[in-house]
TrEMBL record, chains A, B:
Needed cofactors: Zn(2+)
Cofactor note: Binds 1 zinc ion per subunit.
Pfam family of the protein (one): FUR
Protein name: Transcriptional repressor
Record InterPro entries: FUR, Fur_C, WH-like_DNA-bd_sf, WH_DNA-bd_sf
SUPFAM superfamilies the record matches: Winged helix' DNA-binding domain
Record organism: Celeribacter ethanolicus
Length: 162, 162
DNA sequence: CCCGAGACGTAATAACATAACATGCACCAG
DNA sequence: CTGGTGCATGTTATGTTATTACGTCTCGGG
């Protein structure tokens, strides 16, 4: 099955890996961050796969490429990428996915198809964000939010009907 | 430190454990579900603690009370309670917490204080739910949603200022 | 030149979760 | 009453995810 993972539309991403890495490179340079070889490679792996990968999946690929083979190698690279917004962690899956909208500061929302495993990253509107409202009324100061929904994507819904 | 975990207000919950268990009991009876001793005890434990507990924490308490001491004992009880809405899992913490609004069908949102570890369960308004909107525009059918925010609760914010 | 910060490597372990299989018990059809 | 079915529980073993701790290297500043 084709997980068809960008949003839920097909697309050709022959160039988008290189573009995204270049953008990350630039962004890190500007921010004084080190996009080291492991970190860059980890990002590439997630971009190439274009779906949510477990830390150990990433680790295996890194090890193949001559990097260390112990968990901290992957976790540290993923921590860096996550912390700086190039990658998101899907808590529900304990998995990581390259950010579909890097550069912009955002609170991503994920739609996880339980049929085909595709994960779409949706943009949220911060102005009438549910959580922002809640925070306002309760006096809670949000630093990070997790918005994830499991369900069935349009493609799989269509297939079901057949 | 007092985790002060119901919402972020103190309250006396000397009776609420018994009440909540009784309500669960009734609800199960109506629905033809078995609230067996392990399940009931697991629910009590979460209600008594009134904060998010890991499965192994619950397991340890169950074992003390003479139930099995192997992980599936806790996971099965928690699965049952979660499935039927008496307990929620906080994905971000890999932990479980008794539902603060049982009986009503709802999509809970959690506010997790990173300072005092308190977790508040907020009610969401399904009508202008962020995710529902996204689902509508993309044609995705949501079955379960996770809404969690990490940050600082009002009490800890107040303490910080001192 | 030396030092401190940060990045990477490895070993060991902790924390979280499930698979697979056996037993006991309630219920019901024959 | 007997045998079967479904469900809950228990155990063993294992799988998966994540972190701690510590050593080494490199680079830039003093």
């Amino acid at each position: 099955m084709d997980p068809n993972p960008i949003g839920f539309q097909h697309h050709d991403h022959s160039h988008c890996v290189a573009d995204a890495v270049a953008a990350a490179d630039r962004s890190c340079r500007e921010a004084g961050l080190q996009l080291t070889p492991v970190r860059k490679r980890a990002l590439e792996i997630l971009l190439e796969e274009h779906r949510a990968l477990g830390a150990y999946d990433v680790l295996a690929r890194l090890a193949e490429d001559g990097f260390g083979s112990q968990p901290p190698v992957a976790y540290r690279a993923l921590d860096f990428l996550t912390k700086h917004g190039f990658v998101h962690k899907i808590e529900k899956l304990n998995a990581f996915i390259a950010c579909a909208h890097p550069g912009e500061l955002h609170t991503p929302a994920f739609l996880i198809c339980t049929t085909c495993q595709a994960v779409a990253e949706a943009e949220t509107d911060p102005s009438h964000s549910l959580l922002a409202n809640i925070a306002e009324t309760t006096g809670f100061r949000i630093s990070r939010a997790v918005l994830e929904a499991e369900g069935t994507c349009p493609n799989c819904l269509a297939s079901e009907k057949r």
